[in-house]
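Closing statement on the beta-D-glucopyranose sub-project.
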Amino acid sequence: MWNLAVAARLAAVQQVHLRPVFKAKCVTFVSLMEIVKCLHLKARGEVYPCSEVLRFPVPDDKVDWAVPWTNYNPVDYTAPALLKQPSWADPPYRNPCGRTGLKGRGLLGRWGPNHAADPIVTRWKKEGGKTVTHNCSGKPILQFVAICRKDNKEWAIPGGMVDAGEKVSATLRREFGEEALNSLELAEAERQGVKELINLLFEAGEMVYQGYVDDPRNTDNAWMETVAMNYHDETGDSVGKLALHAGDDAGAVKWMDIEKEQNLYASHTHFLHQLVKGRNAHW
Ligand code: BGC
């Protein structure tokens, strides 16, 4: 009853590690299932090393996660030495900001930090070619490209999750292209043009924020972290003039005035506050 994914993984392991052993012993045929069981015997040994802790016994036919087993009740154990937090050990996956009232991963794929990236594309608000200043603060008004998220209808920065092995700089470009310019649905020639423009603008970004995000999906054991970068079109002549089209996870897109009254998704209002302070814009 080994599922296909396990079988494929183990076939690969077998090729790398086991073939010479089998050759030496002249084994003619060993089923994949037997190999799997051999590989996973010590890891089911009764007493856990350097302790008196006894594992919950797991029979051969219950090893596979795909086999339902409601009574499975594995023993929870972390060696006392690890609880003293030596420098080489991972900290426990505990939300660094404290309790959230929910354990497990909720909607998040990874234990611990789940990484996102947020491109904040800005321009100065203009009317009749002139920069608009706010009548209370007297400061120029910044605008940023905002999307309305399809999942919860909240306005947000067009960010997204960093894919495994992806550089954050690539995530920033990809997410902006997909959500604010609908690049996934453009014809190839147009897509190339948009890509070049984004590459040009995204060459010079400034980091606005890096770290924990107050995201509604966070739990005690899994939480969001992000890198928020600002790409500013000072003259408004490049991306500032682009036709915005919502795509992918975005239901709508627009240039939004930055001001403290805007209630945005997660910690996005906080990122924008950091940004306007740096550019001495209206808040
Ligand atoms: C969003 C980002 C957000 C992050 C943390 C991601 O799903 O796309 O914009 O900053 O979650 O809330």
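The two ends are 61 Å apart (CA to CA). With this model delivered, the sub-project is considered complete and its resources will be redirected to Aim 3.
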